[in-house]
Design goal:
heterodimer; A: about 110 residues; mainly beta; 6-stranded mixed β-sheet; 3-stranded antiparallel β-sheet; 9 strands; about 0% helix; B: about 120 residues; 4-stranded antiparallel β-sheet
């Protein structure tokens, strides 16, 4: 299983909206509605921000939203804030020979200008 | 709320076995699935495998021949063993709870360096 493809970096000014893409194949992103997104600040553990494509866990700001079209999933951060500066990773469930497998994206560094 | 904490040696010699334990607090391990995920320095995340409290496991094909995940429900812990390690196995190792198909929460992570 190959890593999902994300842009290396995305930037925006405070208050703006940005979108991070996550491209896979019909065997992972396109085949299941099981894409999740994680935020990782430097030196910290990843934190779940979105699960099952577009659902937010309790406590996650509604400025974060997720969607999917075909083999590409997207994370949108609206009203960008300084605290949103971090690395973001997507992940997709997939299955191979009846085995459950999870594949992660290459990661995107979000910079707040 | 559930919290996870990794523990184990921070330095392992090449060809030896890496062993880590994840202690679950604030909830019982006897529900959900539990996973190990790693992140080489400056790189992305890689899922290693999961275990159910019943003992059933599933591993990433990339490490399947070298990995064993086990569970000790009496101690509310699960463990990772990775054999025949090389420098490529140097990474921060995270344990995490698998909730349906997403990982939440994660432990703080522990850096394991493979070096002689």
């Amino acid at each position: 299983q190959s890593a999902l493809t994300q842009p290396a970096s995305v930037s925006g000014s405070p208050g703006q909206s940005i979108t991070i893409s996550c491209t896979g194949t019909s065997s992972d992103v396109g085949g299941y509605n099981y894409v999740s997104w994680y935020q990782q600040h430097p030196g910290k553990a990843p934190k779940l921000m979105i699960y099952d494509v577009g659902n937010r866990p309790s406590g996650v700001s509604n400025r974060f939203s997720g969607s999917k079209s075909g083999n590409t999933a997207s994370l949108t951060i609206s009203g960008l804030q300084a605290e949103d500066e971090a690395d973001y990773y997507c992940s997709s469930y997939t299955s191979s020979s009846t085995l459950d497998i999870w594949v992660f994206g290459t990661g995107t560094k979000v910079t707040v200008l | 709320q559930v919290q996870l904490q990794e523990s184990g040696p921070g330095l392992v010699k090449p060809s030896e076995t890496l062993s880590l334990t994840c202690t679950v607090s604030g909830g019982s391990i006897s529900s959900y699935y539990w996973s190990w995920i790693r992140q080489p320095p400056g790189k992305g995340l890689e899922w290693i495998g999961y275990i159910h409290y019943s003992g059933s496991t599933n591993y990433n094909p990339s490490v399947k021949s070298r990995v064993t995940i086990s569970v000790d429900t009496s101690k509310n812990q699960f463990s990772l063993k990775l054999s025949s390690v090389t420098a490529a196995d140097t990474a921060v190792y995270y344990c995490a709870r698998l909730v349906t198909v997403a990982f939440d929460p994660w432990g703080q992570g522990t850096l394991v360096t493979v070096s002689s």
